[in-house]
Amino acid sequence: MGLNYFVLDSERVRDDLSLSSLDELAKRADESSGPRVVITVPVRRSDFPERLEGTMRILSRRDRASICLVAGNPAYLTEEERSRSAPRLLSLAAGRVLRELGKRIDVFVGTERVEGTVERLCKELDVVPFLLLDLHPPELLERFRPNGNRLAVYVPFALGPLSEALPALLPYVKRRMMVRHLTGDPSDHVERFCVVGDPERVASRLRSLTERYDVIVGYPALLDPAQLRFWALVNHATGF
């Protein structure tokens, strides 16, 4: 890619950084020529209008800031929020950002459960589809590239034995299994949705993903400095 991305994947209100903190982060990215800061905005949340307005103000004055529009995980939404139309809100938000700020802004759009909507937005607005790691068939990825669109993929990863990573990964794997209507032992599906193993094995699989996806968004399932240092080293070496 030549330009790295730092995605703030916050969907719960309690995990959000304030808009002023996001602005400061984007400012520092500009000053240091650091990674592009991608701010996640769940469109079905009740505070979506205010959050979008604030994020667009940041995008308008910072060069290294982008946005990721997502429907929002139902687990983090109220019943009323879950009833809102994600396709309509995603379409309105993506159209507004690009109309008002222009195509210099990267607009990522989460594909989970709204694949058809994102396919259309790829054709009409050249957005960047943001997929979750899975066994994506080539024909699906082609549908997300009608204009040569870049593809982004979210990859939970963990360095170390699978037994040590399971407690952190299993809740995520179970949610993914529910969406895909998969049965069986969740531990048997970890490698489908995550990357786990020793540094060489994890780095090798991440490199293989760059053959299919343009932007690899890593999530360190084990939150310790060694995991983050590893990601930084691999990211620097491969340029994703």
Give structural notes.
With 240 residues, this protein is α/β, with parallel strands linked by helices. The chain has 2 domains: 1-150, TIM Barrel; 155-212 and 222-240, no CATH class. Helices cover 47% and strands 18% of the residues. It contains 10 helices and 8 strands. Strands 1, 2, 3, 4, 5, 6, 7 and 8 form an 8-stranded parallel β-sheet that branches. Helix 2 links the parallel strand 2 and strand 3. Helix 1 (19-32) packs parallel to helix 2 and helix 4 (86-101) runs parallel beside helix 5. The longest helix has 19 residues, at 162-180. The radius of gyration is 17 Å and the shape is globular. The mean pLDDT is 92.
What structural keywords apply?
eight-stranded parallel beta sheet; 18% strand; 10 helices; TIM Barrel; 240 residues; 2 domains; alpha/beta
Summarize the structure.
By secondary structure, the chain is an alpha/beta fold. The protein is 47% helix and 18% strand.
Sequence-ordered SSE layout with sheet pairings:
Layout: E1 5-8, H1 19-32, E2 36-42, H2 48-61, E3 65-70, H3 79-82, H4 86-101, E4 107-110, H5 115-125, E5 128-132, H6 138-143, E6 152-159, H7 162-180, H8 190-193, E7 195-197, H9 199-209, E8 215-220, H10 225-238
Parallel strand pairs: 1-2, 2-3, 3-4, 4-5, 5-6, 6-7, 6-8
Given the helix and strand composition, which structural class is it?
Answer: alpha/beta
Radius of gyration: 17 Å
What number of structural domains do the residues give?
2
Q: How many distinct beta strands?
A: 8
Low-confidence stretches: none
Task: Using the coordinates shown, work out and report the CATH topology of the largest domain.
Answer: TIM Barrel
Order of helices and strands: EHEHEHHEHEHEHHEHEH
Number of helices: 10
CATH architecture of the largest domain: Alpha-Beta Barrel
SS strand fraction: 15-25%
Mean pLDDT: 92
| Euclidean distance between termini CA atoms | 6 Å
Q: Major β-sheet, in short?
A: 8 strands, parallel
Outline: globular
Specify the CATH class of the largest domain. Answer: Alpha Beta
Task: Estimate the helix proportion, in percent.
Answer: 40-55%
